[in-house]
Amino acid sequence: MTIRAVVTGVGHYLPERVMENAEFEKLVDTSDEWIRSRSGIERRHIAAEGETTSSLGANAARAALADAGKAAEEVDAIILATSTPDLTFPSAATMVQRELGMTHGFAFDVQAVCAGFVYALTTANAMIVTGQAKRVLVIGAETFSRIIDWTDRTTCVLFGDGAGALLLEAQEGEGSSADRGILAADLNSDGRHRDILYVDGGVSTGTTGHLRMEGREVFRHAVEKLAQTAQMSLEKAGLTAEDIDWVVPHQANIRIIQGTAKKLGLGMEKVVVTVQDHGNTSAASIPLALSVGRANGQIRDGDLVVTEAIGGGLAWGSVVLRW
Ligand code: UT7
């Protein structure tokens, strides 16, 4: 018998305010045409005053619990991936725990920027297969609109706010790649690349800071490293790209998504794409795309799903799971 961490619920939350590309034409020297053609982004959601990463995350968590037909009292742990927590501490995860009225178990944040959800899923899986928790809420939630430099056209047009969540539950499997649940994961980081994607503030500066990115450099690393990590986790699961039903990539740029699919030898009909509607929501982008892909009937029970992401650090990784 093998313990597997199986997805039993998924949900998401997006702030009400939608900001179309055209609005940026009034803020910086850009155009709808440039943003669409270079990134694939058409619009993004922006958190309202008073909305925070933890409030977005709590709404997504409620949706995932409702999808699974479970209550917060039945959850053992909350793992929340974010690099835009409400405060330096306590963790946004404990704020979600409080919002859900959950007074038992444990909650903590994972910070691996855009790769955060893949890191959080891998951590939750490790806790479930080693018996430390039976039911774990894994959340990706971000309010990047708060760390964007709204005068920098090379970055401000790319990001959005949102949250997605999965409920993972321990279930028995056979130990084969036909099992439901997380089958393999692959995590990587390389701190030498700090300066191509970072926030220029934090405890050491006494400011929140703004996101700074050398987009072209990050792009170059992304296609190569994302295809590599997806291949690595497939290999660990004893599978190949031909077995994939859906790739659910981090949604940063349609050209990165297309380039990675091509490297894996997959057509775009096997890729869940939400970047046009959400922009880059960092750690929230994968659970948001999983939730949208599930809601619109793309991802079905038994489908083999590969998620992959890269972000600041650089940190990158992938997870192979059967829904
Ligand atoms: O989620 C974390 C990981 N992040 C990513 O994956 C992002 C990776 N990078 C990218 O997605 C792309 O590199 C960008 C979308 C950021 C940029 O696309 P690009 O094709 O790499 O463009 P570029 O940076 O090479 O810029 C081309 C030109 C430049 O002008 P010059 O130097 O050629 O005269 C930029 O100044 O486009 C200019 N530009 C803009 N023009 C209009 C940059 N931003 C804008 C803008 N509007 N918003």
UniProtKB/TrEMBL annotation:
Which Gene Ontology molecular-function terms are recorded?
A: beta-ketoacyl-acyl-carrier-protein synthase III activity
Q: Which CDD domains match?
A: KAS_III (cd00830)
User: Subcellular location, in the record's words?
Assistant: Cytoplasm
Pathway membership, UniProt: Lipid metabolism; fatty acid biosynthesis
Say which domain of life the source belongs to. Bacteria
Xref: SUPFAM superfamilies: Thiolase-like
Q: Spell out the catalytic residues.
A: C114, H250, N280
Tell me which residues make up the Beta-ketoacyl-[acyl-carrier-protein] synthase III C-terminal domain: 234-323
PANTHER family per the record? 3-OXOACYL-[ACYL-CARRIER-PROTEIN] SYNTHASE 3, BETA-KETOACYL-[ACYL-CARRIER-PROTEIN] SYNTHASE III
What's the entry's take on its domains? Answer: The last Arg residue of the ACP-binding site is essential for the weak association between ACP/AcpP and FabH.
What is the designated name of this protein?
Beta-ketoacyl-[acyl-carrier-protein] synthase III
The record lists the organism as Limimaricola variabilis
Q: What is the lineage of its organism?
A: Bacteria, Pseudomonadati, Pseudomonadota, Alphaproteobacteria, Rhodobacterales
